[in-house]
Each structure stands twice: as C-alpha cells, then as structure tokens.
TrEMBL record:
InterPro entries: DUF4864 (IPR032347). This is DUF4864 domain-containing protein. It holds the Pfam family DUF4864.
Length: 159
C-alpha cells in the first residue's frame, strides 16, 4: 500500500520469472491457523502470514470488519503508522482493494527472499465480483519477537 521503487520492480521481475516453478512445486506445508486467534509472533513463515491475512480478508464480516482488523494487526509498525488507525485502514481496503474482500480464492504464486529479514510474496486473487488480480506483499521481520509483518501490498504491474 506504498509506491513501488526501482528495486521493487526488479524484485517483481524475479518473482514473475520464478512463479511458474513455484506454483507447480509449492505444497502447503503448514496447518491452517485460525486467523481469529492468531497474533504477530515468531514461528510463522512470511508465507503463512500472507495466507493468514488473505484468509482473514476472505472471511471478513462486512458488519464488523474483523478480518480487516486482523490484517491490520499483522501490518508492520511503519505500515500501521502510514495507514492507520484501523478505521482508516478499513476504508482504504474497502475503497482501494475490494477484490481482496470475500474473494472466491487466492493462490500464493511465488516467494522471494530479498534479504535475511525481507520477503516479497506474489499472490493471485480471484474476486467474488471481479476477475483475477495479482498482488505483491512485502514483509519484514525486525527480530522484535513479533515475526513477519506486512510492510506493503501493491498490485503487480508485471502482468
């Protein structure tokens, strides 16, 4: 939910190149976590955090926005500062990323380790009312005990 830089364009190109291999070889190697009970903590992979956020948005209750609130909880402190409070974050999701809400399905296409504490994860989302769209999640782990957190989510311009 932040603008893409030149280095992110390069990362997106690498993600695109690796997505065919990744999509055909990746197998779900972790049990589904109840997103309602989950909290940011060490022990989850970056991919698990993205899946948790996507599942929360997919099962979001429009009356309470609890899935959006859970997604915000897994945003990095800098992302929360830029997009919060949670009510403002919810408005941004409803207006700018509606395909993520109550989606039909999503697929984790590829994951690229950018640095020891940074990942880029490419995801395809099939909307309930719209078609398909690809997004790139950028995550970091600061080592503060809260595990992988989302720095930004952006549409993938490499389509």
């Amino acid at each position: 939910m932040v603008r893409r830089s030149r280095s992110l364009n390069a990362a997106a190109a690498l993600l695109l190149a690796s997505s065919t291999f990744f999509a055909s070889s990746w197998r779900r190697c972790f049990a589904l976590v109840d997103w309602r009970a989950a909290h940011p903590e060490e022990g989850r992979s970056a991919m698990e955090v993205v899946e948790l956020q996507l599942r929360a948005l997919q099962e979001n209750d429009m009356a309470t926005s609890e899935g959006i609130a859970k997604t915000f909880e897994f945003a990095s402190p800098s992302n929360q500062a830029a997009t919060g409070p949670v009510e403002r974050f919810a408005e941004m999701i409803y207006l700018g990323y509606p395909i993520l809400l109550n989606s039909k399905q999503f697929t984790l296409l590829s994951a690229l380790k950018l640095a020891e504490n940074e990942y880029a994860i490419r995801v395809e989302v099939e909307g309930t009312w719209a078609g398909k769209q690809i997004f790139v999640w950028l995550l970091s782990n600061t080592g503060d005990g809260t595990g992988w957190r989302t720095n930004s989510v952006m549409p993938d311009g490499a389509e």
